[in-house]
Amino acid sequence: MARSRPSWGWQSILYGRQLLEMGLRWQVGNGRSTSLLHTNWIPGLQLDRPHYNPLILPEGGDPSVAEVICEGEGRWFDDKLSQWFEPSTCRAIKVIPFPRQNVADKLIWHNTAAGVLLLKSAYHLAVELDRRRGGWRSSVSWMDKPSWIRLWEAKIPPKLKVFV
To answer: In which element (H, E) is residue 106 found?
Structure first.
């Protein structure tokens, strides 16, 4: 008989993958490997994709970030940015520093200064994501939040709480 819901373990793996996708960001080098419209590459827009004007899309439908970089000059094509994106997105793009050399784009963890995934930063992203969704996750799907809180505040040994 087929299950109607994935197991808790499988749900956790899928949730972890979703967190990775939300916490990873492309660090722009030459811009050739990064989709301009459909990837997370703008610092400050972590949980959102770039806000662009769908009526004035560039030819080809999904250009790379290289389309808005003046190669060799270390600046952005301001006219393209203002034509394709909302002003707030343009401002966020214009503060992105350019590398001194022609380097490839790379994936980094957005939530740490070094760009390296840390468990603590992944946890904070999960909390923020759940807060934005208005949800609350627990490992016990059948228990409501007030009952869950009462259980963890109960005066019983911690080793018993884990098994309840």
So the answer is: strand 106-109
Q: What pTM did the predictor assign?
A: 0.68
The closest of 100, 96, 94, 91 to 110, measured between CA atoms, is 96
Coil/strand/helix, residue 7? coil
Please tell me the distance from the alpha carbon of residue 14 to that of residue 16, in angstroms, as a whole number.
Answer: 5
pLDDT in tens, 51-97: 777 666 666 677 889 989 988 788 899 998 888 888 888 888 999 88
Handedness of CA 115, 120, 124, 127 (dihedral sign): positive
Alpha helices, DSSP H only, in 85-118? 87-94
Cα gap 12→139, rounded to integer Å: 9
Contacts of 136 (CB under 8 A, 6+ apart): 130, 145
Phi, psi at residue 109, to the nearest 5°? -85, 120
Max CA separation in the chain (angstroms): 66
Domain parsing of the chain, residue ranges: 8-163
- CB 40, CB 111: distance < 8 Å: no
Which tens digit of pLDDT belongs to each residue from 93-125?
999 888 777 889 999 998 888 889 888 988 888
Cα 28 to Cα 16: distance, rounded to the nearest angstrom: 25
